[in-house]
Amino acid sequence: MLKKFFAGLVCLLFILPLSGCSEEPGVFDWLSWYFNRGSGMPTYSGTVTTAVESEVDIYYDDYGVPHIYAENMTDVSFAQGYAQANDRLFQMDLMRRMVSGRLTEVVGGSQEELVEDDVFHRTVGFRRAAKENLEVLSDSTLEKLEAFADGVNAYIEDNEDELPPEFILFDYTPEEWTPVDSMVISKLIAWGLSGNMGTELFLYSLAAEIGEDSEKFEDILPSYLDYGPTVVDEEALEEIDFDADNASAMEKDPLPERDPDGAAELLKAFQRSTWGNDNMGVGSNNWVVSGEHTESGNPLLASDMHLPMDLPSIWYENHLIVPGEANVTGVIFPGVPGVVAGHNEHIAWAETNLGPDVMDLYEIKFNNEEPHKYLYDDEWVEAEIIEEVVEVRGGEDIELEIPVTRHGPVISEAVDMDTPLSLKWTGLEGTPKADALMGIMQATDFEEFRETLRDWWVPAQNFVYADREGNIGYLGNGKFPIRSEAHEEAGNGLLPVPGWSSDYEWEGFVDMDEIPYLYNPPEGMIVTANERIVDDSYPYHVTYEWAHPSRGMAIRKELEDRDDYTLEDMKEIQASFYNYQAKKLVPELINSLEEAAPEMGENEQEALVILDEWGEEPREEVDSAGAAIFWRFYSFFVNNILVEQVPEGLEDMVFDYAPLNVIDQKILSGESAWIEDFDAAVKDTFEQTVEDLSREMGSNLENWEWGEIHEITLKHHIGEDVSSRHYNRGPFPIGGSMSTPANMGFFPTEETPFEVWASAPYRYVIDITEHRGYDSLAIGNSGHADSEHYDDQLDMWLNMEYKEMLYDRDEIEDTDRILTLEPK
């Protein structure tokens, strides 16, 4: 023990300077953390006198989930803020600081990327946009946000001498929580689910190097596989009254000389600020089955939302009860009031990311003589200049002047890019999503549900719905931009467009009544898994970048036409490692390798037999040799035909671009502008695969297992820098991939092991008629590493098991842990 302690101490002496009043956190702060790791342990029982109007009882169940009983909505919001801070205060503070561009104020600037991230977040202006949210919210919602903030602040005040150990490590006390802080975290979530800007920057850089009109460029543009389903079919779209209107055709303006190197730097900043792409793991599954297909005759709803597997979890479980007004349980993002996915007494709901293209980059022409003026329709217009200061602990402050044009902030300023680019994003305006979040908690039927979600503009989501009356539904929701025809001609959101002409403006947004929805469809089932929601008969452009259809196809395969489904069946589908993508691709690979097979070595021939047999019913279990061969081949194939061929400087961008649909099309068609000889490329890659796996796992193919090269480690935000042993959990061998319903997303790079970075931090299934639900959170509800609830759901989550969602008061009151908030 002492040996490990001193080894860690020596390491920290090299990476952290000594402490001082204004210096970065140093070795003495680390020692204070080490000897005070139990500080700020969550309190789950007792009495606290605080600023509630009436007494509030918080019952903590066996997994540390707070069930909050209050007499009014203000008090329940206050208590929710208090409970979240009790479990997740450091995570909440870290998130608001990060997205507000204030992280280096407390951690210092020794890591250059952190300073760059603060500059980027200030430049985008998340906090400025969050403040605008407050201008469009109802008084009722503002009151709840204020009460939530008061609850967080009450916890900070009550525990200022006993804060979680991370505050000791970084030697600071969290500032007062405000409604803006909750809104800025909401902006972060929306940003992470609106990632088209990365595609624009990648394609912008690629076009600058190989030409926008080249065959290779055309061959790598986003696409959707022909066999992929849509959520809403053409027949259902006929029920919608459309009033589509398109602008007249206009000529394209020539773009100025591009700056691919600057775009690459900007893309790196963007990558660090967001969650990547649906195709590599971020996304979600949800589905709902009507009573005609269930054993009980009641509708069943299932949800597993796919996000980064950070520690603490991105989700917080809680249950809010105000007699006669609300009884809602589910999950929420720490730092935000309400319940974002779950159920109340009447309805159950869940979301997956719809993923419309709601970001556009505009190239700006500034005046050389008056640098704050930019050209628009042959006139020089004054840009708004935002002044910001990034305070760097132990270093020099950074003063920023951020120009904001009619198309948004000039984000290229964050990386000194030569070509000025402004970002237009639906999330940079004030949005009333918090009104919708409060409203769905109290909705009682589909009409109320649909009406309140009119305020849910960003991020756009696929909502599935079930109610106690037996109804099921789907609502695709959000603000979908309508681009001018000139904009469409210039790429329809795939490339930056001229910002000096009104020809390229958004002409408005799709009316909420024209957004696809379903209510009691004749099939009695609705499945969404980030796949394409509508076909070409839909009169508006949504996006080109749909997720790979494999997860949705696999779920539909499991949901055959039965009339006896149970919640146990829903759990089994969530746990499925069936890979529909491999089902389609393996036969094509086998056919391609057929002629070369007799000339292969013994190991290659044996591997080919394993892959062929596995491909008949491809399930990616942890001990599967077939899955290991398939994904090792796929990773080398992506590298060989794309990564090694893209121009220098773009290599690291390929996997964030996430070309699963694009790569699959090459394999299914057997041709591509990026491949001279398809069969030869497949043969060489297969031999490379077998050679590599033999080196990794030995020459005996019977010992090859997918879990040997596919692992998950749950990593705390500061675990790698402070103490991975104390904070992190893993690595664990695991099955699945980004293409299986039980999503275990990774980047298929050349390096192994393939580390899972995105999965389902929360899974739940519900029979809303009986209020019977089951869920599982990775890895626990508390963010304190010494709490019993930090990792008490880990084994359950890894084994695809569930706990009961307590809902009835009789069951909840069986707990002996009650934290009572009494009015002063």
- Helix/strand-derived class? alpha+beta
Looking at the structure, what is the overall shape? Answer: globular
Low-confidence stretches: 1-21, 246-252
CATH H-level homologous superfamily name of the domain at 36-45 and 65-575 and 772-784: Aminohydrolase, N-terminal nucleophile (Ntn) domain
Return the CATH architecture of the domain at 36-45 and 65-575 and 772-784. 4-Layer Sandwich
Enumerate the strands of the largest sheet in spatial order, edge to edge or round the barrel: 1-31-2-3-7-8-9-10-18-19-23
Distance from first to last alpha carbon: 47 Å
Keywords:
6-stranded antiparallel sheet; disordered N terminus; globular; 29 helices; alpha+beta; 824 residues; Glutamine Phosphoribosylpyrophosphate, subunit 1, domain 1
Describe the structure.
This protein is of the alpha+beta class and 824 residues long. It has a domain at 36-45 and 65-575 and 772-784: Glutamine Phosphoribosylpyrophosphate, subunit 1, domain 1 (4-Layer Sandwich). The chain has 29 helices and 31 strands. The strands form seven sheets. The chain has an eleven-stranded mixed beta sheet, covered by helices on one side. A hairpin with a 2-residue loop joins strand 12 (373-376) and strand 13. The model is unreliable at 1-21 and 246-252 (pLDDT under 50).
Helices and strands, with pairings:
Elements: H1 2-15, H2 27-35, E1 46-50, E2 56-60, E3 66-69, H3 73-100, H4 104-107, H5 112-124, H6 126-136, H7 139-158, H8 165-170, H9 179-192, H10 196-210, H11 215-219, H12 234-237, H13 260-273, E4 283-289, E5 300-308, E6 310-311, E7 316-322, E8 326-332, E9 341-343, E10 347-353, E11 359-363, E12 373-376, E13 379-382, E14 384-390, E15 398-405, E16 408-409, E17 421-425, H14 433-440, H15 446-452, E18 461-467, E19 472-477, E20 481-483, H16 485-489, E21 497-498, E22 506-509, E23 517-519, E24 525-528, H17 550-558, H18 567-574, H19 580-593, H20 602-615, H21 625-643, H22 654-657, H23 660-669, H24 678-697, H25 706-709, E25 710-716, H26 719-722, H27 724-727, E26 729-733, E27 754-756, E28 758-767, E29 772-777, H28 794-798, E30 803-804, H29 809-812, E31 818-823
Parallel strand pairs: 1-31, 3-7, 6-25, 11-21, 25-27
Antiparallel strand pairs: 2-3, 2-31, 4-5, 4-24, 5-28, 7-8, 8-9, 9-10, 10-18, 11-17, 12-13, 14-15, 15-16, 18-19, 19-23, 20-22, 25-26, 28-29, 29-30
Helix pairs in contact: 3-7, 3-9, 5-13, 6-9, 10-13, 19-20, 20-21, 21-24
